[in-house]
Amino acid sequence: MKAQKIVCLLLGAAIFLFAEENAQFLSKATSSKLTLTSAIEQAVANNPELKAKKSDINAQEQKFNLAQSAQMPTLALEGSVARFDIDQRLVAASFNGEPGEFGGNVLQSSLVMKIPLYVGGKIVADIEANRYLVMAQKHLLANSQNELIFNIRTLFWSIYTQEKTIESLLFSLDTMQKHQNEVQLQYELKDVAKVDILKTNVRIADLKQMLEDAKNKLSALYSILYITIGFDNYFNDDGVKIDMDEMDMQFDHTFMLPKDLYQKALQNRGDYLSLKAKLEALKQEVIIAKAGDKPTVGFYGNYTYRDLMDEANSDESTGSIGLSFSIPLYTGGATEAKIGVSYANLQATKERLLSLELKIQNEIRNAISEFESSRKRAKLAKEAIDFALENLRIEELKYSLGKGSQTDLMDAQNDLLNAQTNHAKMVSLGHIAYAKIIYATGEDYTQTNANQRKSNVQ
């Protein structure tokens, strides 16, 4: 009995492990499609440009640490070993006629401390400038991330357009091939002329050519998407495909007034905030340049040990403390030139900031206009599909009854194809315009889900 129980337990464990393994396999198989959310998350984690931006932040933080170190005391151990042609006194005399020790081989070591007391505000300004530059790099990273997300959304909806175009072309090709069989039969019955067969063959050839072109464009879009996300299998034609069912087709987004979106953009956009931070850093650069004609004052301390290596018991030590100062009297115009350069850079950045403000206003207005236009055109295109389907049905019936022409039938089929592809294009353009609004206002992906229908810009 014990043996039977052991066998049953082992068999049960084996079945459980097998079932779990197969469940994992099925889970992987069902998750083979790529959603917009997962694509964005993977791109943010793997994109090389974002990683480079993070390294830029780290480099600028180290520069900030370097600037901070300039206000700290420095302590150094200095030394030398020298041989003189004329014997040197070990230490300077403290009164006239004081005896001393002399030698030609001298070992000297000193412990030196320096503390900057006043440098015309240069150190503080340099620290502030680098602090603003760290902020600028962080804002650039946020902007690059939002730009990457926008590019992925655009690619997803461009792929959606191509997928729908291919579906429409396949439907049209299937319809024409069925029609080809009917025309061939009617030709054999002497009901139509051979020219109808030729027209049908030409139309089928055109559709096949259009289908191959659409497939090629789709493949190119997938390659760009894989590279952007960071996939290592973008050379594989059987790569992961996007999840078309997961994409939201709704056009019920509402937005703030353009002026409110503009104010939101000035608070959130990484490129704008980065430029503002650089502007503040350049103001500190002006202070640094002006410090060039101001005096500097520092404290120093020195403890020195000297030894005559060729004399026994001939070593002495001395110490000193004091203040050092430097007053620039003439620099050949270098200080004035540095001040002029810093002012010019400051003014140029102010103009660029104004230019970016105007650009943001224009981007918001255009994106809203594109969204509203695409929404209306998508609705009209959907109605056009219904009309085109009914028109095609009538023309097919007329042709089968010998009441319609081949040209009218092909025109009806072409009208349906155009209506279907145009609807997919308008849906795609509308969602790309929506993504533009999100990007133009500086929305953060961590706050706005990639697929939610109600966004923070409402």
Can you walk me through this structure?
The chain has a domain of 301 residues: Outer membrane efflux proteins (OEP) (Up-down Bundle), CATH 1.20.1600.10. It is 65% helix and 13% strand. It contains nine helices and four strands. A four-stranded antiparallel beta sheet has the order 1-2-3-4, with no helix packed on it. α3 runs antiparallel to α4.
Helix and strand arrangement:
Elements: H1 2-30, H2 36-46, H3 48-69, E1 74-89, E2 102-118, H4 122-188, H5 194-229, H6 258-268, H7 270-290, E3 296-308, E4 315-326, H8 334-400, H9 406-440
Write out key terms for the chains shown.
alpha+beta, four-stranded antiparallel β-sheet, 9 helices, Outer membrane efflux proteins (OEP), 4 strands, about 450 residues, disordered C terminus
